[in-house]
Amino acid sequence: MFKNLTKTERAWVLYDVGNSAFTMLACSLIPIWFKELAIGTAPGQITGDKATAYYSISVAVVTVVVAILGPICGAIADRKDMKKIFFTTAVSLGVIGCILNGFATTWMMFLVIYVLSKIFYSASLTFYDSMLNDVTTEERMDQVSSYGYAWGYIGSCIPFTIALLAYVFSGGLGDNLKIMPSNVGKIIGFGVTAVWWFLVTMPLIKNYKQINYVENTKGSIKKVFAQIGNTLKRIATKDRKVLYFLIAFFLYIDGVGTIIDNCINIGTDLGLPTVGQVIFLLATQIVAWGGSLVFARLSKKYDTATLIMVCIAGYFAVCVYALTLKTLLHFGILAFGVGCFQGSIQSLSRSYFSKIIPPENSGEYFGIYDIFSKGASFLGSAVIAAVKLAGGTINIAVASLAIFFALGFIFLKLSDKEPSSKNAQ
Considering only Cβ atoms within 10 Å of each terminal Cβ, which end of the chain, N or C, has fewer? Predict the structure, then answer.
């Protein structure tokens, strides 16, 4: 399964296997469970369009909070022996929130708990991504990062299959297959995901050692902000390679994050069968697994920036294709296209950024990385919400994201041409 990986590299890859279970649930069943609670004519319930808009707004709230807290927590976590503490705390709180989500009885309660769970989940990824410099060498970063996404996609299918069966047998396909109350299916789905997430994370918590760090220094939160300010100033004035990449990343990851967060909403708004959508998304995990492994192999022959550009071009084509979406087959073709590039564009972006930043400040830098990542998702989700509230179609909303990929391609080209200044102080 993890051929040619060291013990620490395997433990790091396994966290992708763990957290991807929550990602898969968030992309599929969580929006369905939310809309089951939200849509209706009973007191406190809302219309379908408002449910879609509120869900997108909740995703936007998560991205803003994580973007604000990421650099602060990352800068503190760069201190000696602090990164594991922050990572373990974020994972634990995320897992607890995931379990509690299954017991929510109103759509408002469901959304609030989900937002908190996803904030801690996203925070854990900031620390996790910054660990890449500690667990492997620069020459192996592309391969190890790609393995993380690849095995994360295939591994997430295990708990998701259990969650999907719980959904089906709690009435998801109608009363003919219903053998348990609908709320029990939801509790099982969230519970299995949380347990898987936590158990698969344990090897990393046990084996991770922070190699790159800054010496522990006493200082107020004001000094932390000053440090972040100085880093941002250096990036803006001296390190154009990092600056151009962050702009490019901000632009192209907008479409990636928006499509991931709203994939079920896309099919639902088109009136497609829910189970059919979920099956295609499950198949997409397998496609993404294969795609990530292919790009991992290609990374041995081609430079990272070139491979990211290929992924950007692929996503651009996917966005344009979204204009034709009408049937479940069209949705399946779209899902296949996304799967080909989804894991690779994220894993290669992670390893590319790891290569061009000072390793001892990786937590702080990945906190800044998350500002651009989560800020982009905020814009994408805002686009979906705005188009829907204005009465537009989901096809137009997704297609409009193509401009972000085009501009991202241009700025990545600029970054690739700049010399590295990672060791400049």
Answer: C
Give the range of the structural domain holding residue 360, as residue numbers without chain letter: 7-210+218-417
Q: What's the pLDDT tens digit per position in 48-98? A: 878 878 887 887 788 788 878 888 888 888 888 889 999 999 999 999 999
Rounded Cα distance between 382 and 376, Å, is 10
Residues 6 or more apart whose Cβ sits within 8 Å of residue 22: 94, 98, 117, 121, 193, 194, 197
Instruction: Write out the two tokens for 208.
Output: 């991770």
- 221: number of Cβ within 10 Å: 10
The count of domains in the chain is 1
289 domain-assigned:
yes
- Position 378 in a domain: yes
Kind and range of the H or E run holding 231: helix 221-237
The separation between the first and the last C-alpha atoms of the chain, rounded to the nearest angstrom, is: 40
Cβ neighbours of residue 236 under 8 Å, at least 6 residues apart? 243
Instruction: Report the C-alpha gap between 425 and 46 in whole angstroms.
Output: 54
CATH code of the domain in which 344 resides: 1.20.1250.20
Residue 161 lies in a domain: yes
Contacts of 174 (CB under 8 A, 6+ apart): none
